[in-house]
Every structure is written in C-alpha cells, then in structure tokens.
Sequence to fold (793 residues):
Amino acid sequence: MGAAGAFAFTALPAAHATPSASAVIAEVYGGGGNSGATLTRDFVELGNAGSTAYDLSGYSVQYLPGTPSSGSTWQVTALTGSVAPGARYLVGEGTGSGGTTALPTTDASGSIAMSATSGTIALVSGTTALTCKTAADCAADTRIVDLTGYGTAVVREGSGPATGASNTAAVARADSLADTDDNAADFTAGTPSPVNSAGQTPGSGDGGGGDGGSPTDPGTVRVHDIQGTTRLSPYSGQTVTRVPGIVTGVRSSGSLGYWIQDPTPDTDPRTSEAVFVYTGSTKPTVAVGDSVLVTGKVSEYYPSSTSQSNTEITGPTATVLSSANALPDAVTLDATSVPDAYIPTASGGSIESLALQPTVYAQDFFESLEGMRVTFADARVVGASDAYGELWVTVKPDENATARGGTLYSSYDQPNTGRIEVMSLDTTSNFPAANVGDELSGVTTGPLDYSTYGGYNVQATQLGTLVDNGLKQEVTRRQKKDELAVATYNVENLDALDTQEKFDRLAEGVAVNLNSPDIVALEEIQDDNGATNDGTVTAEGTLKRFTDAVRAAGGPVYKWRYISPTNDQDGGEPGGNIRQVFLFNPKRVSFTDHPGGDATTATSVVKTRKGVELTYSPGRIDPTNAAWEDSRKPLVGEFTFQGEQVFVVANHFISKGGDQPIHGRYQPPARSSETQRAAQAAEVNTFVKSLLAADKNAKAIVLGDLNDYEFSQTVTTLTADKVLKPLITTLPAAERYTYVYDGNSQTLDHILTSPAVTSFNYDVVHINAEFADQASDHDPQIVRIDLSKCGRH
Fold:
C-alpha cells in the first residue's frame, strides 16, 4: 500500500476494447491503513449496471503494480456469489497499521497490498493469474471483463489511467456506472466510500464485529471470514469481536492457546472453519467442548522467516456459553481427499496472496483446513519418533513406498503429498517410540497446525495405537578374502567427552553391522574436547576411544589418518572442528604415507617412475579455494590392497542450512546452499580428472556425506564427464536412501567410483535413520570391490 514513484507517461492502446454493460469495477482504493488514512484496509468495489444478477462464481479480482517489472506477477483474489442489478460487491484487500475504521463486512476477502497511488485492477472470468503486462496484451485477453489502471499505471483502458488516488483518496465511477473504456474519463478521485452487497457502509456493517450487541450474542465475523480464501487473513491487524466456536483442542505447554471451530461452516471449501487462539504466557482456562465467544486481534504468526504463517487471534478474551458440546466432525485425510500435486508456484515469490485451490494442491488442501479437526486411520509410520515427541505418517500408503516401509523422496518436482507430522496434545501420556514401517492403528484425530519444522501437523487429541512391525537393523555380509571393503559413516559430532554408550553403539555399527570394513571414512569426528572453543584441533583422544570400542565390539585394531583443521574454519559446531578421518585395518590394507599435508596445503597427483602417487597422503583438495569456505575440506588417501593401488577421497560437503523449506511460502523454494556444494563438487571432479589424466585406469573411491540427493545438481557436477559413477543408482529405486527427514527417505551419503572399478558389491546398511533410537542420524554404506576382476578401459 506504499506510494508509487513518478514515471514518464507514454500513450498506449486501451487494455479492453468492449465496454461492459453489466459488471464493472466501481471503485478502487489502495491507501487503507496508510499514513493519514481513515479506513484500515484496501478495497475494490464492483458494481452491476445491468438488469439481471451477475454471477461471480469462478471469477477473480487481480492486481498488477503500476509499472510492472519482469518479475511482477498478477495477484489474485477469488470471488463467490453474485452482484444484484444496481448493487455493489465489496472485495477487501490488504490491511495496514494505520486507520481507525474497518470496512463493512466484505463479500470477498483477499490480502493484496495495493499501492495507494498507482496500479491496475482487473475483473477476470477465472482464477488463473493473468500474464499480460502491457495494455495491448491485456486488451487481447478475453478473460478480462473490466480493467482499471490508476495513477501512472502502464496497463489501463483508454487515453490514460484514472488520476488522483492517494492514501486518502479512492478513484470511483459515477453512480451510473457508465463505462466508456477510458479510465481517465470514467473515474474521478474522492473520499473512499466502500459499499457491500447488503448496502452497508463503514459503521453500518462493522467488519470487526463491534456491533455493540449483547456480550452473549455472536458478533458479525465468523472464523471463515477471518481465514479467508488465501493463506493470509483479510482481518490481519484488526480486532474481531465475539467470534463463535467450539473449543477442539487445548495446548498447555509451549505455544499456549487453544483452537476453536465454527460448527456452522460456510459453503466455500477454501475457507477454514477453525483458528488458533494464542494466550501468550497464560494457560488457557477453557476446555475441549466449550462453546465460546472470542474477542481479540487477528495476526499472522510466522514460525520462521521463510515459513508459511499461522492465522491466530491474539490478546483474547473469551466468554464460555456452555460446556461438553459435541465437537464438529473431523475431515478425513486419506489417498482420496489429499491431492497429488504438492503446492502452487510463484516464480520463487510468495504464494500467500494466491487463492487457495484445495482440490488441486495438497498444501492448499491442508491450509484450507488450518486449525480444523482432521482424522486418519491405520497409517504407516514413515518418520521415526524423535526426542520432541513427533513422528511422521503417510495417509497415502502406496505413495513411493520404500522396501522397509518409508516414503522415498526422488524428485524436486514431485514431493510426497501424503506425509503428515503427528504430535500429541496429551502431555500426561508417553509418546510412542515408533520406527519406520510401524503403524498407528485405529484413529488419530486433532486440530491441524503448521510449524517451521515440517509444515502441517496433527495436534492429536486422540492418538492411534502403535503397532510394532518389527523393523530390524541390517547387517551386511563380510567381505571375501579378495574383496576390498570400503565404507562411509557420519558419526554425528563424536568427541572424546561423549558417553561410552555413544562410542559403543557407533563402534558396533562398524564392527557388527558393517562387518569390519578394511577402510572406513568417518565424517563428523570432533576434536578432543568437543564444542569447547579453546583452540584444540587434534582428535587423538576421540579416535583412541572409538577404535578401542570397535575392538571391544569384535572388530579389528584400526589405525587412522587425518589432517587437523585450522581452528573454527571447517564449519559445524563452533569449537568442535569436525573433520573426516580414515580408519584402516593394517592386517588387510596398507596406507601409503607421503608426509607434509596440512590444513592449508593442497595435495596433487604426480607421475613417478613407480607410477602415479599423491604429493601428500593424507592430503586435502585445494583447501584454500573459496568453495571450501566455512566447510570441511576433502581428505585424500593412497592405499594398497593385495598389491593394487587405491585412492580414496572422503568428503563432507556444506549442509543445506539456509535453504527454503519445500512447504514454505516461497515457491519454488530457493536452494541457496546448492551453489557452494556445486562448487565443491566441481573441485572434487577436477581432482579425479587429474588422477585419471595421469592414469586412466586409476581406481578411485569418492565417498562421504555430500548433503545432497542423487538427482541434485551437486551429484550431476560431481559426476560430470563420467569420471565417477554414483553407486546409489545401482540399487532398486525403493532402496535408494541413507537418511530420513520430515518423513522423506532420501539419499545424502554417497559412494562413487572411477570407471576402472567394474567389479563391486554395494550396500546401504540401514541401522539409524529409520529408528527412534539412533546412534547417528545417518545410515552407513559400504562397497566391496574385487580389484582382481576390475578391468581396464
């Protein structure tokens, strides 16, 4: 609603060639809530100059900035109902922080923050956003019923736009609603005068519900009015009075408050009938089943800067009318009700102003149920219980099922829509410890909420019974005598001060579940005092405890090699100084030491009379390159197994921290961290190319936590020119995962091999990610290579 700047004006052709004899745009005001404004909200008023009612079902009002840029998009507010002959129809839009007077009850609600001084409004047959950005292009769009450009708008009808719009002035047609398709001639500036379909004006039909009625009578605003048809409330920032509803859930810890739901819904599937009432630090005094009238201020709460928002009533006062009322019926979540498309897009911008399409998009469907009672039955667990009392289920049992009961994440374009997070509002009972593949049997019911961690979730007032389906940790086979076994395992910030239990469990994963590989690349080995930030960078104590624990679990006596990082230069937990480490079994494999490698010195490939070797082993790949800023540098080692030379590159690429969530308001979400990972992948690819240039038959194994998917640009860059083969792609699709996040089984950890590695057996060993009781959040993986059978190429 901010004022637009001044622009030079060039005459352009009209945007709409045929004057409308019925439905027209009657008045436009974008100064609501601005400095000096009386009204708190922007609006568009429609009128019907015809002799019969004009049906607006499926129509929309759309807004474009006065001088659109290449990134500008039309914002859409969907309409319902009709406008009677000679009557008006009021569309409420964005709300500002100023003003003192609410609009009369609106006939349709949006949240578009219109400019006070320059913009274009179109009445459109349909709810799909327009794409035209010039007057000529819009004139050719037959969906446009009427169009008004005001201020200095480029898109307008006739010789020029309507003039005089400001924080305190609207542009309006004459009472006759005459339309000559010339905005400059048809509209004049004046005091905003919104009128709704009931003929109400400000004060006669208070949009905030302050009607001065009895304290036990409902006000004029219902919950569905507050929720509106988009993700943002048209009443945001306004006080609503005596909103009726039944209490359906009470949260007595964390974010305190309760949900109310109107038992008398409207007929619009886009408008939720429930809302969260936030009580701040005060524990709610209402109970489930209470019939209440709530007065308070409507607000949008954002759990994070990129998340969607929760519509709430804050600073509430409540009157309890009666208790023990029947609760409104819960909406069923299942494969039939939840759409297969995930979420709309907005060219990377916010989707908040888009009209909800709950029959098209799963996330729109959930948003249309925000706060309402939902239910599902007999759902499979796809994300194990965590320390915060949360788990994930799928209400679509056939959607991308993994071999062990999860839901596979296999594409940016097709996120799994059946996943839903489950939390319990009953803090007196223990939350079940569920593993992937278990089942919540029977019925789970509760209000549908939204949080930054995972998105939409069921706040269960009734939780299904856990059925343990007996998921077991995997144990891989032991390597044969002539097979070199190489594994990778992220041990999640292991340091010498951790409990013996953690050491023992991680060690068992190496000695038993991985069956004592010959070489193990470890990620997230911290220095000897963990997160204490005192300059300590060595990890001898951490590795001594770990290898002792492996030996106690029945494994070999491993030796190790690593390079200590420069203090606080490799990312991760401050003071922790995580790094990659090679463990190797000296009875099976030897490490070729080439001394001199350190935190800032790069290793390289050289040809000698004895063949190809590293200048430093262990060494780092170009550690001062900007690609590795605040991130782990790859560790390279030269090994010999049964007379065969093998080069191993251990990696831990930068994390996904800072990426926008797939369920957030910006769509498609920006994956900002991918830029640095792609640069890191390019560096490793270049190093492998240098190795193969020196010896095309060199046997290289590149492995570790790449923090990205097999279908990502990171892996595409890493494998460029076919110098590496990602072994995860050799598994059946339903087995391609090493990590579970938000109910998505996905691949973050990888093993890749050079072309000369032709005889191998690869396995992801599932021991952590699918279980409530985890030693690490990552599953390890292993490749067994028969070097004697690896051919030349």
About this structure: Confidence is low (pLDDT under 50) at residues 1-19, 205-212. The longest strand covers residues 239-251. DSSP finds eight helices and 41 strands in the chain.
